[in-house]
Specification:
- The chain has a single domain, classed as Gcn5-related N-acetyltransferase (GNAT) (Aminopeptidase), CATH 3.40.630.
- It contains five helices and eight strands; from the N terminus they run ββααβββαβαββα.
- The chain has an eight-stranded mixed beta sheet, sandwiched between helices.
- Helix 1 crosses helix 2.
- The longest helix is centred in the middle third of the chain and has 15 residues.
- The chain is globular and about 40 Å long.
């Protein structure tokens, strides 16, 4: 994954030195739960997950340029092909942002850059995204980013041992080209 940059953000691979910033936002109740995982109760949990991010290499650290602080993460994950949609190269985008930075447009900014990267550099055919019905912040980011509703969905949050009603969205290469032209 190459480093991406927007006006206010840098999206880059995770580093071990990001541990404290990651724990700072991941330990806040309500942040992880909106994405299907429990907030981190200790830094050892954060260290273990950070190692996974580094090893897999499919998750960006979202860094605020102004402070050089990690304020969230954004993943562009490979998607197993299924019967939902016929396309060769599919990815799923998922993200989480520090509660301190909600409502400032950072996630929309990061998502737009990641979408551009997915279609222009990774040559993705279809990009998926989704949210729990209770997560209206994610819904706004998804809709403002140009995804279109694909349908209702039941998400299994295995780390929470729960299911959540939600919505799935899709963006095809043609959708992206239309958006890019406007």
């Amino acid at each position: 994954m190459k480093t991406l940059e927007t006006e206010r953000l840098i999206l880059r691979i995770w580093r071990e030195s990001d541990l404290n910033d990651f724990f700072e936002y991941a330990s806040v109740e309500g942040v992880g739960e909106m994405a299907g995982w429990m907030h981190h109760e200790n830094i050892e949990t954060t260290k273990e997950i950070l190692k996974g991010f580094i090893d897999r290499g499919d998750e960006y650290a979202i860094v605020l340029k102004e402070s050089n602080k990690v304020i969230g993460s954004l993943g562009i994950h490979k998607r197993t092909l299924d019967n939902d949609y016929e396309a060769e190269i599919q990815r799923t985008i998922g993200y989480v942002l520090s509660k301190k930075h909600w409502g400032n447009g950072f996630m929309g900014e990061a998502a737009r850059e990641a979408i551009k990267y997915a279609f222009e550099d990774l040559d993705v055919d279809v990009l998926w995204c989704g949210h729990y019905l209770i997560n209206v912040q994610s819904q706004r980011v998804i809709e403002k980013s140009g995804f279109r509703l694909y349908g209702d969905y039941v998400f299994e949050a295995k780390l929470l041992n729960k299911t959540f009603d939600g919505k799935r969205y899709i963006m095809t290469k043609d959708d992206y080209k239309t958006l890019a032209m406007n």
